[in-house]
Amino acid sequence: MSEKNNIDKVRTNTLEQIEKTERNYTWVFIGVAIIELAFFACFLLLADFSNRVHLLLFIASISIYTILASGLIALGIFVNRNTLRVLRAIELLAHSDGEEM
Q1: How far is CA 95 from its chain centroid?
Q2: What secondary structure letter does DSSP report for 33?
């Protein structure tokens, strides 16, 4: 019985840590997005689009951000899918522990 309580405690602590990390990630992501938005707004305000170098820098920055955003979305989907698999395995393990008793 003690082993089952210990396993439940480990599961609970792990899930709480995952939730805390997710909250921290969300706040950091929002902060970085605001800073990047400020840089982008400054670029738009200061750029002289009649100058072809400024236009080239604008197009290059948009293309880089698009590639980075696509990669981050793909990475997020991959991590989310793997996290759901781990949570499903924990759930199945909890159900199998209950059936053995």
Answers
A1: 29
A2: H
